[in-house]
Amino acid sequence: MFQIDIRKGFLVALLTAALPVALQAQEKDTTDLMASLEKQAAAEKINFTKATFHTTRLIDGHSIENVGKGVLDVKISHRFGTLNKGAYELFGLDNATMRLGFDYGLTPNLMIGIGRSTFEKTYDAFVKFKILRQSSGARNVPISLSYVPTIALKTLKVNDPAKTDSFSSRLYYTHQLLIARKFSNSTSLQLMPTFIHRNLAQGTEPNDILALGIGGRQKLTRRLSLTVEYYYQLPGHKIDSTTNSLSIGFDIETGGHVFQLHFTNSMGMNERNFISETTGKWNKGDILFGFNISRVFNIGKTASRIH
Question: Contact 81/89 with Cβ under 8 angstroms?
């Protein structure tokens, strides 16, 4: 009887010693399995890049961003006169042009917009369609890509009876590709190859303008970013009397608003104006101060405000 009790005691002691080891091994196996499943799930997940830029406009031109589905973005843009006007014109502040625009998201990848500028009393409309979206994970896409066709109608009266003044002669068409990459949380870059067609050209001026734009954003603080935008017109496809558009600005994010302050040599605020018809020269002081204000309103079911 004593021998049997010893054996039972030895068995109990052995089981007691082995149980924590078995439980620890099982816990490790479970942890390894969960880690493996999480790693597999992460590999199968597509991580889309967000907030490449603060708003749907870089400065004058479009950025890669879209407003979300069901979101209305109201934009008010001002350009004052040139700084070289001097103190008599309050360094350009006595003169101003403006554009009022309304952008709306039809789907997460498709938005439309209309606007009216006081400069040459121009109406414009555009469609922005996102073709590619930068992502990592299961789908590694290094860039975002959008296509933006724009139409502009100049309604300023022509007082010279010798000039052609038909409806079609007042129309301008622009086609742009937006190619962007967000390199980090602070740095983004965008290329904008652009084609502009003018139905009416004066004298030997070309009807078709070709330009390559480049722009970028460098985040300075959580809510402040430096932005730059430049359009180079290709030789042989530009108006001789024009210069290339260069704009430098700051984006300030304040809750539901994005406030953009900038300096530019371009007066107009639609593509055919600032890309193909800029005449201001930075080295001559033809620099205009301006700002854009963006306010979004959720008027439908949305996924997010910016895509």
Answer: yes
Residues 6+ apart with CB under 8 A from 183: 189
Structure tokens, 28:
């490790």
Q: How far apart are CA 104 and CA 99, in angstroms?
A: 16
Residue 300: how many other CB atoms lie within 10 Å: 13
Return per-residue pLDDT of the chain as tens, 307 residues: 545 566 666 555 655 665 665 556 566 666 666 666 556 555 568 888 888 998 999 999 999 999 989 999 999 999 998 888 888 888 878 888 999 999 999 999 999 999 999 998 999 999 999 999 999 888 889 999 999 999 999 988 877 666 667 778 889 999 999 999 999 999 999 999 999 998 887 777 888 999 999 999 999 998 899 999 999 999 988 988 899 999 999 999 887 678 899 999 999 899 989 999 999 999 998 999 999 998 888 886 655 556 6
- Dihedral of alpha carbons 270, 274, 279, 284, sign: positive
Classify 27 in phi/psi space as left (phi over 0), alpha (psi -120 to 50) or beta: alpha
DSSP notation for 154-186: E-PPP--TTS---TGGGEEEEEEEEEEEE-SSS
- C-alpha closest to that of 67 among 101, 114, 107, 100: 107
Exposed e or buried b for every residue in 188-200, given b needs 16+ CB within 10 A? bbbebebebebeb
Q: In whole angstroms, what is the distance from residue 11 CA to residue 201 CA?
A: 101
Closest CA to 203 of 166, 235, 170, 239: 239
Out of 2.60.120.580, 2.40.160.40, 2.60.40.10, 2.60.120.280, select the CATH number for domain 49-298.
2.40.160.40
3-class SS at 110?
strand
